[in-house]
């Protein structure tokens, strides 16, 4: 009678896929605790241990089917590792849940003295722990394979880079050849009674230790051969998680303080470049700008580039996860980094605030200018779109393209930029009008002048509106431009 509920929960486990198992384990242990508390027949260690052992065996069987031991080393290692880690997590959780139930067993005894589980956990989990240990060994195998697979695409720079890269290639081929042992096994690697796995695994660990020593030597030579901090970090980034392998880490760590020293040199160089840039503000024509950008956007992007460079290096140093960054020397260097970041930020604020403080007034003044101007001596005309307005339009276009959340474009500049296409249309047509008119003025012969004097005079009256009264904010500018373009077209013909 008391086992019927337990039988039902266990049958649910048996029918489950392993990836559905975790939420169904707690009800099994809960039911088992109820049986222990309410059945004097099963309130005996020998009997409850047997039940728990059978549950453990069931979990081992379901886990084995889920992992498919014949496919673990033949499929994608990344996918295999995900499944292995999931299995380990579920198996460990069951042990944790067991201990929680053991400690909370008194809650199941309502009207009697609680009877604890005083038996050793090892009596329940002896086989289970052996299986869990085997899964962890397979996890180590798969993780090591993933780590060493990084070697396939590693290329080391520097004077000795080609020779070192060849050593890495040979090491990878040696590893690949050796690891095929597990791809070709015919036994069940999850069978804890199978002695062949232990023999092969011990050989694997011995071989990997030898390869780790060789790899550590290659990395140290790469350290010494790389000509810059950037090259060293690029090399370390290529090796990735291999650097965390105990043998490699122990052998390489003495080299890491050099990275902090090189980073300080990089920060000092950045400060020198910043000081030069700051000094050039007195003569902005010489200031260093990001490629092809106008002044404000170019300076902001230059600052962003400097900031990204020193931040990227700092982040890579932190990711190395070693004690080097906690030394007194590193603390001082990172303080320099913070100071440099503040200097760049203040520099940006100054450049941008100066621009935003004047752009509105400058824009309004220039928009109030007439569309055209005339040279009193030659009578030739020209488009009067001030270069400062062109500069505003370029600034806004580039500021929008760099997409900085901390940059808010002033309304006055944004409003002008919203009419950018309209201004382009105005300018293209005004340039055509100016070209036609000036061509006539410059090429007309004295004998021809009386023939067009009336037309030219009428056109001059028409152009005077653009020279004296029409500006870039006036109403009906486009209608005027269309009319004048037609007039100059007729005159040119």
Would you write up a description of this structure?
With 493 residues, the chain is mostly helical. Helices cover 71% and strands 1% of the residues. It has 17 helices and two strands. The chain has a two-stranded antiparallel sheet with strand order 1-2. Helix 2 runs parallel beside helix 4 and helix 12 crosses helix 14. It is elongated. The termini are far apart. The relative contact order is 0.05. The mean pLDDT is 88.
Summary of the model, kept short:
With 493 residues, this protein is mostly helical.
Question: What does the secondary structure layout of this molecule look like, with pairings?
Answer:
Elements: H1 3-14, H2 25-38, H3 45-67, H4 77-103, H5 121-149, H6 161-183, H7 195-225, H8 229-239, H9 246-252, H10 256-279, H11 295-319, H12 328-367, E1 372-374, E2 381-383, H13 387-402, H14 411-418, H15 420-443, H16 449-468, H17 477-492
Helix pairs in contact: 1-2, 2-4, 3-4, 3-5, 4-5, 6-7, 7-9, 10-11, 10-12, 11-12, 11-13, 12-14, 13-14, 15-17, 16-17
